[in-house]
Amino acid sequence: MAPSTLDRKRKAVTRDVPEHSDIESEAEFGDGLLEGILSQSEDSEGDSGDEEEDSEDEEAEELDELEALDSDEIPSENGEAEADGLNGDSVNSKSAQDMVKSILGDQQTLEDEQDIPNYTVVADANGGERYVYEEINPVYDSDDSDAAVAENTIGNIPLSFYDSYPHIGYDINGKKILRPAKGEALDALLDSIDIPKGWTGLTDPATGKPLNLSQDELEILRRIQTNELPEDGYDPYPATVEYFTGIEEKMPLSAAPEPKRRFLPSKHEAKRVMKIVRAIREGRIMPYRPPEEQKEEDEEVHYDIWQDEQPRPDHVMNIPAPKMAPPGYDMSYNPPPEYLPTKAEKQAWESTDAEDREKEYLPTSYDSLRKVPGYEKFINERFERSLDLYLAPRVRKNRLNIDPASLLPKLPRPEELKPFPTVCSTLFRGHEGRVRSLAIDPSGVWLASGGDDGTVRVWELLTGRQLWSAKIGDDEAVNVVRWRPGRDAVILSAGAGEDIYLLAPPIVDPETDAASREILDHGFGHATNATQTLTANGARKEPVAKWTRPGTRLEDEGVLIKITVRTTVKVISWHRRGDFFSTVSPTAQRSAVAIHTLSKHLTQIPFRRLPGIAQTVQFHPSRPLFFVATQRTIRSYDLQKQELVKIIQPGARWISSFDIHPGGDNLIVGSYDRRLLWHDLDLSTRPYKTMRFHNKAIRAVKYHKGGFPLFADASDDGSLQIFHGKVVSDLMENATIVPVKVLKGHKVKSALGVMDIDWHPKEPWCVSAGADERET
Amino acid sequence: MARIKKKGVTGQAKNFITRTQAVRKLQISLPDFRKLCIWKGIYPREPRNKKKASKSSSASTTFYYTKDIQYLLHEPLLQKFREQKALEKKIAKALGRGDGHDAQRLERNASRPEKTGKTKYTLDHVIRERYPTFIDALRDLDDCLSMLFLFANLPSTPTVPAKMIARCERLCLEFEHYLIVSHSLRKSFLSIKGIYYQATIQGQDILWLVPYRFNQRVTGDVDFRIMGTFVEFYQTLLGFVNFRLYTSVGLVYPPKFDKARDDLGAELGAFSLEGNGVGAIEQPKQITNGENKAPDPKLQAEIDKLMSQLNNVEKEPEEESATKQITDGDDEGEDEEMPTDTIDKFEPAAPGGDILLQPSYSATDPSTLFANFTFFLSRETPRQPLEFILRAFGCKRIAWDAVLGEGAYTHNELDPSITHQIVDRPPIQVDPDNEATTEDNQTAQKLQPGSRVPGRIYVQPQWIWDCVNDEELKRPDLYAPGAQLPPHLSPFVKKVRGQYDPSAPLNEQEREDEELEVDSEEEEEEDVEEDDMAVQKPKLLTNAEIDETAEGMDIAGSDDDEDEEDASEGEGSFGGFSDAEDEEEDEATSAALQRQRELEAELTGAQVEEKVIDAKANAKKKAAKKAKEEDEELERAKMMMSRKKRKILEKMVYSNKKKDAEAEGLRSKRRKIEKGGKGAARA
Description:
The structure holds two protein chains of two kinds.
Chain A: H1 2-14, H2 17-21, H3 26-54, H4 56-69, H5 73-87, H6 90-115, E1 119-123, E2 129-133, E3 167-170, E4 176-178, H7 185-193, E5 199-203, E6 210-212, H8 215-225, H9 267-282, H10 291-297, H11 343-351, H12 378-391, H13 414-417, E7 435-440, E8 446-451, E9 455-460, E10 466-471, E11 478-483, E12 492-496, E13 499-503, H14 510-521, H15 524-530, E14 546-548, H16 552-557, E15 559-564, E16 571-574, E17 580-584, E18 593-597, E19 602-604, E20 614-619, E21 625-630, E22 634-638, E23 643-648, E24 655-660, E25 666-671, E26 676-680, E27 689-691, E28 698-703, E29 710-715, E30 719-726, E31 736-744, E32 756-759, E33 766-769
Antiparallel strand pairs in A: 1-2, 3-4, 5-6, 7-8, 8-9, 9-10, 11-12, 12-13, 13-15, 14-15, 16-17, 17-18, 18-19, 20-21, 21-22, 22-23, 24-25, 25-26, 26-27, 28-29, 29-30, 30-31, 32-33
Chain B: H1 12-15, E1 16-18, H2 19-26, H3 30-40, H4 50-53, E2 63-65, H5 66-73, H6 76-97, H7 100-109, H8 113-116, H9 124-130, H10 134-139, H11 141-152, H12 162-182, E3 185-190, E4 194-201, E5 204-211, H13 224-248, E6 256-257, H14 259-263, E7 271-272, H15 297-315, H16 337-341, E8 374-377, H17 383-392, E9 397-400, E10 420-422, H18 432-440, E11 457-459, H19 462-470, H20 506-509, H21 514-553, H22 560-569, H23 579-604, H24 606-639, H25 643-682
Parallel strand pairs in B: 8-9, 8-10, 10-11
Antiparallel strand pairs in B: 1-2, 3-4, 4-5, 6-7
Subcellular location (chain B): Nucleus, Nucleolus; Nucleus, Nucleoplasm
Coiled coil (chain B): 613-647
Main location (chain B): nucleus
């Protein structure tokens, strides 16, 4: 169908446009169109059928384009036909049916034509089917028309292969070419006796017939043999035809007389000659002189090239070549004797490669000038210099020609930084195993310590005498000891395992002792109330911590309260007023940080979730801020507004401890990855100074709280480093940090050195806890 | 969003161009490019980031500044190169066709500088471009002079045509003549490489090196084409500089050159200078590129002085006209002007003002250092440098042996006017009887070898150089023939604190505790060595004795010391042992003797020694403590530095330490030498 519609469409396109505009007459026009198609198809059935088939694909492709072209027309036609059918308009429907029929018929005829086979089925020798195709009848102007008719198609195969067959090959149609009939052997013999003219005895491979030469061919052969020209009628020596010769014509081509100028000397030439003559007379043209002499004559001209010199500033990028270094003393022909190389130096110079030598010459002394030889490498050095001048890339390099001492930062003298701890004055021996924690009490008289042996000991700081000891952890180490701030009472807190103990060591006068016991006991009424909280479903919630009395044995020793939390307590940090303290148990999931109220025996968990493992906490020394250190960051929270204030990012991998400057604006952070970081809280969340002077992890850092600008850190490498860190109240000035002293006294035991450190509240003394000793 | 910047169109990628790209852009061959670079003073650069600068993935080695190459694009020389190339092609084509005549005709147009020494092009404009002012040219004269002086002393080869050498020589001699006339040579130094000269012209210090007159060793790895390109440029440059210099002192350039005299080896004497009748060009202002805007007053004063001296010299009688004829046209008495040119001394009128520094004059004028002397150069001395240096420092009459060439004041060694004779030969001991007999049949010219003309000073050549460098006449007896010369020191070394200075006494430049350290070290050494010394001692002594006897026999030995002694003491101590000789001999054994003495002292009075040791140990301890403290301090300070600064500091400390170690090595060597000398003296 496609081709026919296409034809129609083509027609439609070629027809005049106004016809389509008349919609009413469209059906008739449609008829006419269809008829035209039919006739056309009938006409072209015979010859254009093939072409149409061939071009079907192309046309199918073109169809889209064409459709796009007459998109107004064709759908409307079809649609109208359909609509007419629906309306039941007989004439129109008839015509439409006609149209359909005719189209169908048209198609059928086409299909019929295509279905006629061009072969006949014949039974072959075996009785099977055999298709015998019609002979292809090339049309007159087919390509094959001028091909040889009965050409043997066997190709480049020796004819002898076909000796046993009756045929000698196949023609272009696959038909056997039968061997031409040969006469009897006798006939053949006769033939051979009676050799016809032009007989060669050869067989034409193309035809299989005997190859005979014609008369002409024989004639050519004869001519070649007799050294004659092979072609007949060719004249190698034709007679000269004299087209342009000296034969004088009788009549001149032009009858004009010879002009006068032919007989007169040229004026132009005379002019030119005169010009030359004049030039020679005037001396403009010199007689010839050999060029060599001229070259000898002309000297280079000298003039003042800087006659009108104009200073021109150098281009910014221009780098003038550096001058050669002037010779030193050692280059003298007679240098001072100390410049002469010793034997070893000489040998070293001679044994090194010429390129590696520091100097290209060896200082030599000659006792008189006449003994000085020529310098062997003179030309080479000059050559090197010229190479340097044009080949060496030039770079401007700033050479710092200053005293290196000026680069060093101006540090105050250590004498000016005094006092700071310098020597170990007291050793406190008594603990078995490691001392995990220590603290000096607010009055600065006693030192409390706790260690792996589960005891808490209180020492006299100045003498190193042990005053009191209590074994609180039965099988657990005392992880932390801290004094309660404030001079009104003497209360020590200690963490061993999951228990926090509040102790009132009996080392003070009775009044103070009583006061401290009173403070501790005061909250027992509140505690019960506080633990009565219920969960949402009504079940009694497990209290976060239990405040109990530790039992009579311990109570006698002065241990008054035992607070049991869920996991091991590692850090205790007191609020400056002494009513709150916070504990950290890093292993706990939710209750890692707990804040305990001493007066109410109340424990609260301020954070339900923390980003990371809580390491340590601190109360701000003056403001209601609470600092929590996780592994990577330190967060400060406002306790009143209950919101996050700041996240400090020291950049350490694992913070071990931190401390807040008594001024409250600076922070030091120690980390397990050997860094000590000073933060200025006003400046940035990043460290102001990073100090990496330890070889091992830093365990503890502490500021001096009593007015000295000192801070110290304790590391696993067994050393304490004391720094001078002065904070100026002026906002414009940064803190000055000066390393002051490295104290080494602790031995490293199982990769642990100094565990904890604390400063005396007033004096520039510090104590540290190590494997088994402390120092001031 | 801003437009995305294309890569490689701005910044370093655009500012730098590789050599290959440059050559392509200019469309010339690599040798031509090299020539252009040399003449125009274009050199490769080091981009700050090589990766950014190069567009290719492979690492290019040489980068040029793109603007430099752009500037080459308009170079007229480029056109000349192209013309030459086209001509070469034509010649090659003609030869290929077998058209000899045509080739010859074309060949006539071609420039063959290697044959003729002349080129088709001139480099004048290049000079003008590279050196916009004369001062700029002077500043760049170091390499120029070194190169031309070297080429003046080279033998001619196919690559170095004789004409080039001759021209170099002429230019150099002309320049020397200017220095002589203007007295601008300042210093000179005899090194193992050659002779360094330093001149100061218009405030610019020019330092160049002249090789000793020997056949230069030419190795295969020297490309004379490159050197030749440089020489071509330098010749042009020095030609213009010479012209300017000559005209500035009122001389005609080029000076008259007497070929006949030059063939006789007159060298400097082959030129005759003439005044140009205009007089010295007054330099109204010195044009510089703003680096030293204000002319150095001291220098100006010196130049003025020189100018006045020059005029004085020209008026002097025709005595020196044999060597150079300076006939100056203007005989205006400029003596009145002289005092006004010099700087007045400002004395503070009232106390309380700041004291401003003023240049001071040296007592003796260096340009007249040798003015009153007549020198005679022996035939073994290097004539050229001596003649130049003597003339440059005011000497008018220089005589030399006839073998040294033409141009001498006289060839007669016995001329009575000669005051100084420069000798560089070992003194020969002459039998007095023999001398007496030969005195009679001597010619007037020839002198008996070894004998001396009375009334004149004999010195070695180094005397001249040391006098010149110190701007004073040195004691000639130190430089007498055969004497052990004092060390010849480089005048170009600037004295830097902390660096070793051989002219200063040792204890002045030592650190406080250096001697102490060294002593202690030596003591330790002594302790170790004492035993074997004791064993060795007798042997050494016998050796010395043997040596002494041997020396006593050897009369005709050419020992310098011996001869010196002879000269000073007369003929009394012939063949005997002079004191100095003894000293030398004992030098070797002195150390052993001293140790022996110390041993004895130890045996008798051990206590005295111990005390000394105690004090020393204390001092040592203190020093060590101090050093330790300082170390700690440094360590603390370093802890507070940033890593970058610390690295800079460490580098500086390293280099300083290296320098210090060098200086200390020299000091310790000298200490050893001095001790050795002292020990010998004591013995």
